[in-house]
Amino acid sequence: MIEESKMGGGRFVVVFLLLALSTVSFCFADNVTYDHRALVINGKRRVLVSGSIHYPRSTPDMWPDLIQKSKQGGLDVIETYVFWNLHEPVRGQYNFEGRNDLVKFVKLVGEAGLYVHLRIGPYVCAEWNYGGFPIWLHFIPGIVLRSDNEPFKAEMQRFTAKIVDMMKQENLYASQGGPIILSQIENEYGNIDSAYPSAKTYINWAAKMAISLDTGVPWVMCQQSDAPDPIINTCNGFYCDQFTPNSNKKPKMWTENWSGWFSAFGDAVPYRPVEDLAFAVARFYQLGGTFQNYYMYHGGTNFGRTSGGPFITTTYDYDAPIDEYGLLRQPKWGHLKDVHKAIKLCEEAMLATDPKTTSLGSNMEATVYKTESGLCAAFLANWDTKKDANVNFNGNSYHLPAWSVNILPDCKNVVLNTAKINSVITLSKFISLPSKDDTSSGASFSGWSWINEPVGISSQSAFTKTGLLEQINTTADKSDYLWYSISIEMNQNEHLLKDGSGTVLHIDSLGHTLHAFINGKLVGSGKGSNGNRKVSIEVPVNLIKGSNKIDLLSLTVGLQNYGAYFDTLGAGITGPVQLKGSQNGSTIDLSSQKWTYQIGLRGEELDLSSGSTSLWVSQPALPTNQPLIWYKSTFDAPAGSSPVAIDFTGMGKGQAWVNGQSIGRYWPTNKASNGGCADSCNYRGSYSSNKCLRNCGKPTQQLYHVPRSWLQPSGNVLVLFEETGGNPNQISFATREVESLCSRISENHPLPVDMWTSDEEARKNAGPTLSLECPHPDQVISSIKFASFGTPRGTCGSFNHGQCSSKQALPVVQKACIGSRSCSIGVSISKFGDPCRGVTKSLAVEASCV
Ligand code: GAL
């Protein structure tokens, strides 16, 4: 017996050891260092492609799919900021649950086989409320944020160490076998540091502090040309090809390649053409770069009150390769995927040696990575904004369109030109669901109930102070709303203002929006903008004899996130507030009188956003176009599994909650001005954030993402707080669907990157190829809406035949594609005949999938 049990124990030990070994084999520690060319992982230099996904801007439910789509798109690394104010809303009280579950996010990225760049900051900018700083920092006596200031440094170190420890405890650093290969401290401090007298000391301290945390992986500082060794200074911008790090021992790295740009309420919506983005990427790798990150790869949504600015929209779509709703934005995603593959075909040569660049003529250059052992990769660039060119390189001739790069993995054959897109194009659309009387879509509202929000002071916790208070110091950002309330007696002032008629109320506010009520009636409103957060209004008011109530509601729309001393800019009605009499020009200044203040709304105090309480009424008729009102309804989830949006057309401005979760601030009445938009934007030439704009004259944001995981099949509760007045009967649902699939390939497109070969024989039998693939694995191509071989015109969704078109296009494409998930067709006259000799022809196709 004894023997047996010993044996059993022995077996157990063996099994245990085997198990332990097998786990260890999944988490071999990676040794991450760098040299002048690249990050070096386990002794090997790496060309890395990275993309930003901020975990709280989507839901844990969406994460695996976003990460998978990133991997398929050719990313090696996911970059995320860490959002201090989410994780420590109250000093010492941490939150890492749900969308804040950083450890889970990092683990998911690791499990997908990708690396992580963890940008701890802890100042992050990011169009995030207060740049990611918890508001309580502001109230620490003597604190000066982002400077050589003991109280600040103590807090910054504590939080940074907390995050590093958390990652270490979970073995998430590459040095421990985890996915994190890189960390960032601070963020673009170099852009604004000249305003801080102690900048140099602070940045040296930050560097030392970070290094002392001993993560075992390199640290970076972005936009910090004096980043002390061994910290790598990296570049952020629309282009970083001309960037050089501050030491010839550090690699050339690009932490933010802006794939588009953010949007702000009241502004048009920026987009960045993929040809230009691809050009920027190729130029960077051409000129010696080895790490490049898309900011953003998936932008997502600013749920709750997380958006900064002020005036940053709830959507943070960013025109990123994966759209706000998690769908691929095509051809952006697909073309960049091809660019990544093309770069990776050059990786070995790129890493083996330093680049050598020579001129190919005016605004053109060739870069060669060539080793004695016979490796050779080349990039040919033409940055002329107008002129296409034919260039000679190594005895061969190459066509080089303006503002493009040819990539040659063997120094001879072109695998990709950044301006020639082989990827499919998709038309993604919001399909509106009828708002009423339609049960089939499963998205109708069951009728509305409401609660009026009182004008002025209604809370026990209201307080009185002499003079006008700055808002952020007063509310500590617990709410967007602050009431300023005062009563004035007109009898006493009659000698000044007669009986009050002809009086003008003048208000100056630091921002961001305000509403003025006299005796309970809304008399005027004002709003700032992304460019100018301040508000001034002058409104004629009718005062009555006796007591008059003046109630001013001041609102923040996300706190400032950028700039020197951004944290001290302030908001709210700091005055003056005056009553100007037009009769004799006299003025009563109310600024230094006694005001009564209320932080937040009664509805917030009562927690109406959850939908509970018995205060909701539905009789008499629904009040519409009334300011300050809470609305509630229930609805069934839209059928199917497509992403869901609420269309807030008909509403003014406010906040919305679905099943108690805030889907953010809505503001469909805030429209972009009319000028400056172009449907098709010339990608040639330097991009800037106001170069390519959409939505002129339209609401900056009309549709608001409701994550599927927040919905149950039926009985969902929508609560709105409407500030200015609207009609909830006009609210409707939409789902985001892929409507059409298109592609357009010319006879002189390079072969698809997957078909690339340097074998002469194989190349002879291959040519440009048009490929289509339905977005979902269970779909097939059901119809060909358009096919033309010749000189087709227009864009996806509006293709039409040009002067020259082959009759065979439609039947050939139908035969090759219908009924399959994907299809490929050679683009050549051998397939379609030649409808016009001597002219370069293209094949354009639009298809749909079911
Ligand atoms: C950068 C900053 C990012 C983000 C970006 C604009 O300057 O580092 O956090 O704000 O600009 O989207």
Description:
It contains 14 helices and 43 strands. The chain has 850 residues and is an alpha+beta fold. Helix content is 18%, strand content 29%. The strands form 10 sheets. It has an 8-stranded parallel beta barrel with strand order 4-5-6-7-8-9-10-12, surrounded by 4 helices. Strands 20, 33, 37, 39, 41 and 43 form a 6-stranded antiparallel sheet that branches. The relative contact order is 0.10. The longest helix has 25 residues, at 2-26. The chain binds beta-D-galactopyranose (GAL). GO terms for molecular function: beta-galactosidase activity; carbohydrate binding. It comes from Fraxinus pennsylvanica. Residues 1-29 form the signal peptide. Pfam families: BetaGal_gal-bd (PF21467), GHD (PF17834), Glyco_hydro_35 (PF01301), SUEL_Lectin (PF02140).
Mean pLDDT: 93
Spatial ordering of strands, largest sheet: 4-5-6-7-8-9-10-12
**Helical coverage, percent range:** 10-25%
The total strand number stands at 43
Number of helices: 14
The share of residues in extended strands comes to 25-35%
Molecules bound to protein: beta-D-galactopyranose
N/C terminus separation: 67 Å
Q: Shape, please? A: globular
Catalogue the unreliable spans. Answer: 1-26
How many strands, what sense, and barrel or not for the largest sheet?
8 strands, parallel, barrel
Structural class: alpha+beta
Integer-rounded radius of gyration: 30 Å
